[in-house]
């Protein structure tokens, strides 16, 4: 207490010291005293209230403890009275044991009396129930079966209550009612038969199906009641629970599986279209069954059975299992396509699960895939591998067939525009088209892969086609009498190149959404190059044929015979025109190039005849006569090729102008102007070489040694620059060996 007082005084001193730190604060001493007095009065009031509250609580607690003590005493007295009464009644309870046994016996006898009629009539009820089952009166049969089972279960329960360890009596009762289990099994068999044919039964006799469902519902209720009693007593009658509802769904599931598997009527050996037929039957059966289930079966089952949902899941699972089995077989390419098309497209289309008659109960979005992504990927890989082998074989066979046509004695067919062609492009692209249409039925991705595959194999095929066309040309050159229609079939080969080009473009435009797809767009230039090379080789071969026939007449040019009046150029023109009447069957792009090449080669051969120095003019008159003849023949050739090139819209005069320019050099009468004329020729035709000029001067026969030397030195200063559009004519012309020193002599 003293310690507390000291702490209070110390605290008060500190507070007063804090208040009176400055002299001016002494004026407020009275004010501080009143404030502290108010605080003290407030604290004392709160303290008094708290103490009063504590005192009230203590008073209440003491009162409650006093009441509790009185209650405990009363309870103690009551327990003493109960104990006394219990001791006095022990003897009375023991004397009632006989009464208890009598009550149990009375209960058993009452049950026996109650079931006495059934007990004596069990054989008769069994016969009646058997007859009803055979007659198909399933509800009545089940009613009697329920009575038998109720009597049996009641007696066994009473026996169980009286003496659960007495197995002899339990066995006796069970044996007496032994036929009951057989009837139950027989009735169940009839129910399962109806359920197996439920889709047919619901259309013909829905009441029978309803009866089956009612029987199953009764058994389900009995099962639930017995299981509830088992929790209380531990007793379960024999054969319970039957779980007929669960068995019903098992039967339905087995029926669905059997129905799906039983739709395969053919094998690959008996029918190549076995899988298509099998899948179509499945589609029809499943769709019909689900429509019947949705419209009729749901009316025969309680809503909580969710019969349509369960059947839908059963069919989906059975289909998935069947598709897995089919996928695991060694399927051919067309069979893989049929399977994947059905699984990925048909199953989820309006032809099946999206059918309006199944909406809205069937939501395709909630159905799991019939085949896993891994299985689909494996099938696609197998399909692509098989398709690759097939395409290679088909292309090889198509080419072999086409090659047989090349040696026929009859001309090839012509298209609607009159151009020769063979059936090869049509066969090839019909095959590509068919495979692409099939792939498009499965997926866009597969379609693109097949298109890439077709174009890749087309690239390889065109290389083989090029080699075969080259061999065809070489064999003909060894024996020009064979094949009989070589020219016509070579024209057809050339035309096929254009057809191939157009077909490739058409195929890509039709089956490619995006032309910039890598690997596809890049294949076009490569194939175009091969096709152009084939066409170029073909045109070259045909021109080779022409120039072989012209060889004799070309050799007459610029000879003495030619100068004296040879008609070699007339024959050349007639021969070329005759050949080009056949070449009219070549399609325009290649005919245009071929005409230009023929024109160039004829002019080159004419210039080669000049450069081979077959003649050397000895007088101005001969030079004039020869030059004028060259100009006339150049005009003759110009007229011919203008005629052949009509409709192409190109200038074809340039080549023949070269002959005229050379003729002007030969015709020149003033040798002093020869240097100027030759310089003009060289500037106009930059590919002309010194040996060409030497040969040309040799043909003139009058150039002086100094003039030749001057001209040669000028040429050695460097060739003139050629224009970008200039087509070289002299570079391929070889002059017979003659060095400049000999020429100057």
From TrEMBL:
GO molecular function terms listed in the Swiss-Prot or TrEMBL record: SNARE binding
GO annotation, biological process: exocyst localization; exocytosis; protein transport
CC terms in the record's Gene Ontology section: exocyst; Golgi apparatus; growth cone; membrane; midbody; perinuclear region of cytoplasm
Keyword Acetylation applies: yes
Superkingdom, natural source: Eukaryota
Subcellular location as annotated: Cell projection, Growth cone; Cytoplasm, Perinuclear region; Golgi apparatus; Midbody
Keywords: Acetylation, Cell projection, Cytoplasm, Exocytosis, Golgi apparatus, Protein transport, Transport
Presence of keyword Plastid: no
Matching PANTHER family: EXOCYST COMPLEX COMPONENT 3, EXOCYST COMPLEX COMPONENT SEC6-RELATED
Complex formation: The exocyst complex is composed of EXOC1, EXOC2, EXOC3, EXOC4, EXOC5, EXOC6, EXOC7 and EXOC8. Interacts with EXOC3L1. Interacts with BIRC6/bruce. Interacts with MYRIP. Interacts with SLC6A9.
Function: Component of the exocyst complex involved in the docking of exocytic vesicles with fusion sites on the plasma membrane.
Similarity field: Belongs to the SEC6 family.
Protein name according to UniProt: Exocyst complex component 3
Native source species: Macaca fascicularis (Crab-eating macaque)
Chain's gene name: EXOC3
